[in-house]
């Protein structure tokens, strides 16, 4: 686990940048959700990171498919922890943010905290599995990379 967390450092920096960016866009710059959400998406960034980590760790770390899948699942889980905590923080602070915006939770109307927690828990499971699958795809594509020195 320590090796996975060590390898995840770059992802964690990117996750922090994207998270701060989402808070900034929605709460400081007041960019409408529909305009800004796709510019800085934690889910999309995590899926791409899972693909790249799977590929590069296969080629240059000698990872097997299960190791790549595990690392990618960890990336997905960490991203969703940030989404979950940001959602709960939005409700606790009584502010509207990209994290508690109805469309962010596949709803047409604002959700209660309890409902939002349920949606985010489902997202935690779904996005962790999705990241693991992306990591496996990355591992498969990793065979296309040149061998390290």
Walk me through this protein's architecture.
The relative contact order is 0.18. The mean pLDDT is 96. The chain has helices at 2-7, 9-27, 33-36, 42-61, 65-93, 113-141. It has 149 residues and is an all-alpha fold. The two termini are 26 Å apart.
Helix-residue proportion: over 70%
Termini separation comes to: 26 Å
Structural class: mainly alpha
**Which segments are poorly predicted (pLDDT under 50) over 5 or more consecutive residues?**
none
Number of helices: 6
Give the oligomeric state: single chain
Radius of gyration: 16 Å
Number of domains: 1
- Based on CA inertia axes, which overall geometry fits? elongated
The SSE order reads HHHHHH
Based on DSSP secondary structure assignment, what is the total number of beta strands? 0
Mean pLDDT metric = 96
Largest sheet: none
Question: Which strand-content bin applies to the residues?
Answer: under 5%
Features:
single chain, mainly alpha
What is the topology?
Blueprint: H1 2-7, H2 9-27, H3 33-36, H4 42-61, H5 65-93, H6 113-141
Helix pairs in contact: 2-4, 2-5, 4-5, 4-6, 5-6
In short:
This protein has helices at residues 2-7, 9-27, 33-36, 42-61, 65-93, 113-141.
């Amino acid at each position: 686990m320590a090796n996975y967390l060590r390898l995840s450092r770059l992802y964690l920096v990117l996750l922090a940048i994207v998270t701060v960016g989402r808070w900034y866009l929605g709460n400081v710059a007041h960019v409408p959700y529909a305009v800004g959400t796709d510019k800085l998406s934690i889910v999309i960034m995590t899926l791409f990171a899972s693909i790249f980590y799977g590929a590069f760790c296969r080629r240059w770390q000698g990872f097997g498919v299960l190791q790549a899948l595990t690392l990618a699942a960890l990336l997905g889980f960490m991203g969703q922890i940030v989404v979950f905590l940001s959602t709960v923080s939005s409700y606790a602070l009584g502010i509207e943010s990209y994290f508690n915006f109805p469309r962010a939770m596949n709803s047409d109307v604002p959700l209660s905290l309890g409902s939002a927690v349920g949606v985010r828990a489902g997202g935690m499971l779904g996005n962790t599995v999705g990241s693991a699958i992306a990591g496996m795809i990355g591992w498969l594509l990793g065979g296309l990379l040149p061998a390290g020195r």
